[in-house]
Amino acid sequence: MSSNDYLIRVQDSLAALPESLWDGLLAQQAQPTPFLRHAYLMALEDSGSAVPATGWLPQVISLWHGDALQAACVLYVKNHSYGEYVFDWAWAQAYQQHGLNYYPKAVLAVPFTPVPGARLLAVDAAAREALLGAVLTHCEKLQLSSLHLLFGSQDDLQACAALGLMQRHTVQFHWDNQAYRDFDDFLSQLNQEKRKKIRQERRKVEQAGVRFRWAQGSDISEADWDFFYRCYERTYLEHGNPPYLSRAFFAAQALHQSESWLLFIAERDGQAMASSLIALQTASDAQGRLVRTAYGRYWGALERVDCLHFEACYYQPLAWCIAQGYDRFEGGAQGEHKMARALMPVNTHSAHWLAHPAFADAVQRFLEREGEGIQNYLEDLRAHSPFKAG
Fold first, then answer.
1. CB-neighbour burial class of residue 177 (10 A; exposed 0-12, middle 13-18, buried 19+)
2. What is the number of helices (H) and of strands (E) in the chain?
3. Burial class (CB in 10 A: 0-12, 13-18, 19+), 328
4. Of the residues 7, 25, 211, 345, which has the maximum number of CB atoms within 10 A of its CB?
5. What is the mean pLDDT of residues 189-212?
6. Could you give the CA distance from residue 203 to residue 209 in angstroms, rounded to a whole number?
């Protein structure tokens, strides 16, 4: 296809694009994350985690000027809404009640990864809008019910607004490092109630005889990865579901993207008994400042210890971030309990296109009402800040 002087290619695997071209384009974005790197997305594909058999059909759409890549994205055609973290089950049910098919639909997202960041990779705003236009044309050609861009960057959202997509807002909880000297300095900024609670929770874990060690990058051994996966898999199975990601996915991460990972392992009496896995990113922001971000991703335990989850998933990572000079820790989807650990609420964003005009109109009205509720919710949360007043 060709449009606006671009050559448009649609391919069924990211393997069709050289890693250097894809990652080079990603590096130009204002909000890159390790989850959109070529190695990460290919690991999802090669490990069988996000493939047609699991309901994720990849469509790689790219725009070219001659041999120069101008824009690209991975669109997933889906027959379910699992692994997205922006919930549209009610929309699907409404379609079904009216005798219409909501699936297949399309998402611009990183499978199983509710981390805000770039989704439409482009050299400039014009190329980004052209890419989104090509995506919409492709969705219409495939007669899909809808397109959903999830946890997009501000640049993505501007392109979506320009092309008339509906905007939706959700809430996550993130922590910012205010140049804390150490964990005690951080605690000193909290109100007495929250400070006391965190110390009590940490004391329970320590008194249970639990100690932590951490390993980063190539220092994470294969035995460590094996133990982590046992914990991760068990957590999913305890909730009645198989894990989204296979052991082969994490093997690929260890081989091709190890520098992006930090592993905490809890031990008692010399035996490993729990773990949490954190992703890492260093990138320049829109002002050219270097920002170091950690992302809370996965956790699991083979034994139950009171408050161990909070220690493994929040307190150990925050202490590490302070010691290593990281600027930000993103705690993942949902969870008001994170605010008691000083992760503050932030708006995250998605954009949506529905092919059916009447349903698009109904969803637009719903999103307006929902948006007002989200804004009130944010204001209420911020009024209950865990930090000292003033």
1. middle
2. 12, 14
3. middle
4. 25
5. 97
6. 10
